[in-house]
Specification:
Strand content: over 45%
Largest sheet: 5 strands, antiparallel
Number of strands: 9
Mean pLDDT: 93
């Protein structure tokens, strides 16, 4: 299993040196993105770390005006584990970013395929990243034209959910509205 774990990781040498200090012992960098996540015109980072058991953490690391990097938020559930995708395998697809926003995408299944895209935006008022959209879809491989899609947004489906508190299995009906 060690050989499989060594694939598809980002080399620490390709990361900014100041970001390397945010890599937890016993983890490897699965993905990272550079984007202004809080609207202060400084480059911030999203860092996906994977442990040997396949579980993952997504960290939001912000650059301070003095150039130092600060761990702003962390979540151990938003990026699904390496073995959580069913027959397709690793469900982690990608993270897309734009200023003050990011979306984590997953894809998995077998005969029935599913995907989940979870989006967080920065709230200047609350000074944190909050869940703003979850899009779930599924279809059977024999009927790809019969895709079923559900889109969940606040305040109808959930209230304020901070990035650090988000649980993909328990967000509907949660959060202050």
């Amino acid at each position: 299993m060690q050989a499989a774990w060594a694939q598809d990781f980002v080399s620490e040498a390709s990361l900014p040196k100041s970001l390397v200090t945010h890599i937890d012992a016993g983890t490897k960098v699965r993905d990272f993105k550079t984007v202004d996540l809080n609207g202060d015109n400084l480059d911030d980072y999203l860092l996906v770390l994977e442990r040997a058991d396949g579980t993952r953490t997504l960290k939001i690391i912000t650059k301070q005006p003095n150039g130092q990097l600060l761990l702003a938020k962390s979540n151990d559930a938003v990026v699904y584990c390496r073995d959580c995708g069913g027959a397709i395998g690793d469900p982690f697809d990608s993270i897309s970013t734009k200023s003050k926003s990011f979306t984590v995408r997953h894809f998995g299944g077998s005969g029935y395929r599913w995907s989940v895209a979870t989006t967080f935006n920065y709230s200047r008022r609350d000074q944190t990243w909050q869940l703003v959209r979850v899009e779930e879809s599924e279809f059977h491989v024999q009927h790809p034209d019969q895709m079923e899609r559900q889109i969940y947004t606040p305040p109808k489906h959930f209230g304020k959910i901070d990035f650090a508190d988000f649980d993909p299995n328990d967000f509907k009906g949660r959060g202050e509205k």
